Amino acid sequence: MTIQLRAPSYFVLASLMDGALHGYVIIKRVEALSGGAVRLAAGSLYAVLDRLADAGLVEVVSEEIVNGRARRYYALTADGGNALQDEAARLAAAAKVVTSATARRRAVTTAASPA
């Protein structure tokens, strides 16, 4: 299944590449991985996680009570890992189109410039 992920979903999946994390750590990891471009509030994060879980891309792998609050740990599923790899490849291919076109345009401009 190939799906196009929006930036928040992409970076949430990417944050889980190295293992299960709970919400606060996911928020911090998303911000770091995106260079600050994606900043999720807690409510937004859990909406993204719910959508990803409904799609079978992440799952709750454990839960604990910390200071009277439930802390859920989320992990990538195999489908989530595949979706992340597919999206990374799609983004790389899209970037290559632009960088190749830019390089060709520069080459034409440089060749056409008087010496």
Automatic annotation (TrEMBL):
Residues 12-85 form the Transcription regulator PadR N-terminal domain. It comes from the Bacteria. PANTHER family: PADR-FAMILY TRANSCRIPTIONAL REGULATOR. This is Helix-turn-helix transcriptional regulator. It comes from Dactylosporangium aurantiacum.
